[in-house]
Amino acid sequence: MPVYKKKLWLQEVLEYGDRKLFIQCLYESKTSFNNDLKVSIDVLNKWSQSNHDGSAEVIAEKYFIKKITEFRKYLYSEKLEYNDLKMRVEKTMSEAMGSYERKQFDNAKLILTEVENMQKEILGEKHVDTLTTKYWIAMCLYYKKHFDEAEKIFREVNIMQKEVLGDDHENTLKTKHGIAKCLYDKKEFNGAEQLYIEVENMQKAVLGEKHIDTLSTKYWVARCLYNKNQFNEAENLLRELETIRKEVLGDEHADTLNSKYWIARCLHDKKQFDETERLLKEIETIQNKVLGENHLDTINTKYWIARCLYNKKLLDDAEKLFTEVEKLQKEVLEENHEDQLSTKYWIARCLYEKKQFDDAENLLRDVCNMRMKHLGDKHVDTLNSKYWIGRCLYNKKKFHDAENLLIEVEKFQKIVLCSKHEETMDTKFWIARCYFENNQFDIAEILLREVENTLKEVFENKNEEILNIEH
Hints:
single chain, mainly alpha
């Protein structure tokens, strides 16, 4: 309890209690109130000895009136100091949240830490306001992609919130949701899914099944399932979610469209490209109307329509749409943003399929150089770009160059993906093809048999590539 609040309580005892009893108790027990007012033993003895005609009470009362006058002055100054500190906390917190909203997370974290220290001193470590500030510090770390640090603080906050507020309090659930977000971004999808389900069940009980926070948690359960390649389960959950969001938020709300978008992504991964394209075009029409052509969500939807066209072998249409997307991305994203590089990569893939190998190679080299700079040599996207440069070289009959590049790719794929991964096997297959074209038939045969045996082991004779290798 803050000092001034303790003294206010003692003052009330003096002013409104039984003064005779109070003086007696004060003398006999030397209470904490005596420690505050510094009543000497001599004075207490004098009161005790002056017992006739109630004189002890009169003397004591006069003494206390004088002391209380002094005490009130002290109390007033301390309360002013407390109020001043409280105003400073509120002002500083406002500055911190302003920085947070402007995405200035370093500055926000710095200010929030200052606020937290003040709150610990005034309110205590477990006060709801102190815990809220600590929650926002964790959020700053999360958006800086410091997921381990953020998770650690979220967990500390969650333990104290459970103790102070209870398991099912809105703030406790919000923090638990933050822990799940950290796990999700660390690609720990099983742990994230389990935590999201726990949060969703509590939210259903506390907030209701159709509350916006409950629906948001359900959405992230579906995203976990999607990332675990459980596309049917994810699709079913997203369809449930879309139905409720339509009812609660309307057809054109961003959250409703987002549910629909991820249904389309599930269908795409299930290779249902016609249905995916139809759904994405519905979404794009509404996004153009509600968000505008230059909004990132609209651009992203257009990108996936182009991916559908590519998968349906409509290469001219796909290339044209990818080019439109890239132009829009240049306007709204920073130069060489990963989304822009991804679009450029798929333009190159269109050119490759149209047998324009020189143009495809040049574009892929641009993408590969930028990915090496931003993502590193071993990132799967960098390796993928390099792999398709190798394929271009192969088709241009530069078999030695293709072989050297593909061997380099395979070496990193073994580290990043594992030696039995489908993409590693595919690279090995094309290395063997290079050896074959260079008339090194023995080496080619050994490699092809290794690929065949691995694919049989992994895919149980059901993979189309096995038939190609055997042929």
